[in-house]
Amino acid sequence: MQPVSQVSGLGGPGHRLNLLLSSPAWRTDSWADRLPQLLEPMGVSSVRAASAREAERVMRQVSVHLAVVDLTVPLDGQAGENVEEGGTRILELLSRLESPPPTVVIQAPRTSRDSQRSMTAALRCGAFAVVDHSAADLELLLGVMQRCLSKFYQNQWPGQSSPGPSGLC
After folding, report:
1. Residue 65 belongs to what domain range?
2. Tell me, what CATH number does 121's domain have?
3. Phi and psi at residue 128, in whole multiples of 5°?
4. Backbone phi and psi for residue 48, each to the nearest 5 degrees, phi listed first
5. Is the distance from CB of 7 to CB of 58 less than 8 angstroms?
6. Where would I find the H helices in 13-166?
7. Nearest 5°: phi and psi at 56?
8. How far apart are CA 64 and CA 67, in angstroms?
9. What is the DSSP string of 13-46?
10. Nearest to 6 by CA among 67, 48, 44, 36
11. How far apart are CA 29 and CA 23, in angstroms?
């Protein structure tokens, strides 16, 4: 997985899909750490943004074909108790792109009221799916991403004109 400062290489030769993963830097050994290792051999180029500001830089530099957004990612790279969450900001930025990518949202456990607000914000911004953080394991996310790509790209890699042996399924 490439750091945000090196995203200019995304989408280069051999890469069929650009995947934006926004996940807080303080989360270790998560789906965001393992997905790139599994998907890179298939031509998926992943970049992890640890804040909404980093995600914004990525979106300015490269076409994002699919995004997985953890709503608890901070607005800036700061950590701590009273840090403003930036996941909703990422969703807004993605929805404003000329060609908004399909998006999978990871929602943190919250009160029923806050959970409803997060769900409403995600769906208003066009999220394909909302997954609770407690259920966000690698297998579930791969399945949701496959369905997402199937629906939005008709089982073809983005930009591919006709289905062939390199299709998604």
Report:
1. 15-75+84-153
2. 3.40.50.2300
3. -75, -40
4. -105, 125
5. yes
6. 31-39, 52-61, 87-96, 112-124, 138-153
7. -65, -40
8. 7
9. TT--EEEEEE--TT--SSHHHHHHHHHGGGTEEE
10. 48
11. 11
Q: What is the pLDDT along the chain (169 residues), one digit of tens a residue?
A: 455 444 444 555 456 899 999 988 776 767 888 899 999 998 999 999 999 999 999 999 999 999 999 998 999 866 656 668 889 999 999 999 999 999 999 988 777 777 787 778 888 888 898 888 888 888 999 999 999 989 999 878 887 654 444 344 3
Report yes or no: 168 and 142 within 8 Å, Cβ to Cβ: no
Calpha distance 8→23 (Å, rounded): 20
Paired tokens of 110? 């919250």
For residue 53, the one-letter residue type is R
Pairing verdict, β 103-107 and 44-49 = unpaired
Q: pTM to 2 decimals?
A: 0.81
The residues pairing with 69 across neighbouring beta strands, listed in sequence order, are 22, 105
Instruction: Give domain status of residue 29, yes or no.
Output: yes
For residue 164, tell me if it sits in a domain: no
Asked if residue 110 lies in contact with residue 75, where contact means CB atoms within 8 angstroms, the answer is no
Distance of alpha carbon 114 from alpha carbon 24, whole angstroms? 19
